[in-house]
Specification:
Strands 1, 2, 4, 5, 8, 10 and 11 form a seven-stranded antiparallel sheet that branches. The chain has a four-stranded antiparallel sheet with strand order 3-9-6-7, with no helix packed on it. The protein is mostly beta strands and about 160 residues long. Mean pLDDT is about 85; it is low at about 5-10. The chain has one helix and eleven strands. Strand 6 (about 85-95) and strand 7 (about 95-105) form a beta hairpin. The chain has one helix at about 5-15; strands at about 20-25, 30, 40, 45-50, 65-80, 85-95, 95-105, 115-125, 130-140, 145-150, 155-160. The radius of gyration is 18 Å and the shape is elongated. The chain has one domain: Sandwich (Jelly Rolls), CATH 2.60.120.
């Protein structure tokens, strides 16, 4: 059997693939309270190769295959009023603990009311109990509320080693 046929068969069978993998978005704005860390409920899946992301109850990625995963998110935080958004923090949690975070723009001296945080990381997952969740916190002046815009997204895929 030729090397080319072995590789082609492996790709076709899924033996060589970046799976499990998923990509999910918000179907509408998720409201958040001022200065409160909130789990983002990405509820609309574009794809989920192994049903490893729960998009209806606990909103977490729990792959049942051990390995290294590229985990990413893009969260668009907003305020209900221009000039009220001071900061947006996006966080990835692994097994209930914050692992990494990213900060957005400070709009206190401008008329802006929306910012975009992108974050990506390579994270080792054990294939049984490890899980990833996505959180955001938006701080506003005057105690106003805001949210996370639809179009925000999250995903992950296994890295071929």
């Amino acid at each position: 059997m030729s090397i080319t046929k072995i590789i082609a068969d492996s790709i076709t069978s899924g033996a060589i693939a970046n799976t499990p993998a998923f990509h999910a978005t918000l179907s509408s704005i998720q409201q958040t309270s001022d200065a409160t860390t909130t789990k983002i409920q990405f509820n609309s899946e574009s794809f989920d190769t192994n049903n490893a992301y729960d998009n209806s109850s606990n909103y977490r990625f729990q792959p049942q295959v051990a390995g290294k995963y590229f985990i990413y998110t893009s969260i668009s935080g907003r305020s209900d009023s221009p000039g009220q958004l001071t900061n947006v923090r996006t966080s990835l949690y692994k097994n209930g603990s914050e692992l990494i975070q990213a900060y957005g723009t400070d709009f206190r001296n401008s008329s802006g009311y929306q910012t975009l945080n992108y974050m990506g990381a390579i994270i080792e997952m054990n294939g049984s109990s490890d899980y990833i969740e996505y959180f955001a916190r938006a701080d506003h002046t005057g105690g106003t509320n805001g949210g996370v815009d639809s179009g925000s997204y999250a995903g992950a895929y296994k890295i071929i080693e």
